[in-house]
Amino acid sequence: MTTQEALFKYTLRLGDNSIILAQRLCEWTSKGPFLEEDLALTNIALDIFGRGKSLLEYAARVENKGRNEDHLAFHRTDRQFTNNLICEQDNGDYAKSMIRQALIDCFDLMLYTELSKSKDETLVGIAAKSIKEITYHKRHSFSWVDRFGNGTEESHERAQKALNELWRFTGEFFEMEEADELLIKEGIAVDVKSFQAKWEEEIKALFLKANLTLPENVFMQTGGRKGIHTEHLAYLLAEMQALPRMYPDAKW
Known about the structure:
By secondary structure, the chain is mainly alpha-helical. The protein has a single domain, classed as Ferritin (Up-down Bundle). Helix content is about 65%, strand content about 0%. The chain has helices at about 5-25, 35-65, 70-75, 85-90, 95-115, 120-150, 155-165, 180-185, 195-210, 230-245.
């Protein structure tokens, strides 16, 4: 594998994580629990979409095969996406969405903080902008986890149920493959293992504060990097890609 091929795979995966999560969050638009929260989550989704667009645009340039970010977003099948499985999970209730978001935000803030030290100037630029946004996203999702966990009996029960359901997807955060190893040696990619203990410590502190119990002895479900996804992704892409596939030559 060449450095160019590795960089394409790496950047594509980061972009896939962003656009799939953003698409999922957009499903809450106009359905938030109250107006201010509806606007907040919509803006968070737009931030993440913006990051995904930048990453896919860069991935297309690195690939250099005549594709652009729209081709990568709208004209691939679910087996060609490499996002983490947690990003594609259904929204469920608001507790589930916020638990999912907190797990991802905590990881992403550490990831992009480290990526801002990369030798790749484009990734550094994307990371620098993302850090500012994710700092807010994390504060938002963490506050909701605390709110649900220490709220009513029902809100606590819903949050615990969501955590039990989503925890099995967190192991995939810290998987690495050949492309990662090659780019780490080049000083481009992030060694996610280097902050795994820190992530676990922060997540444990969050759920302890929220009086929620982390599941134990859970079999971690993976496969997203190999294009093996849960049933949720195909349905999400069918909606997200419907119009561009119907009018593939349209200019937006």
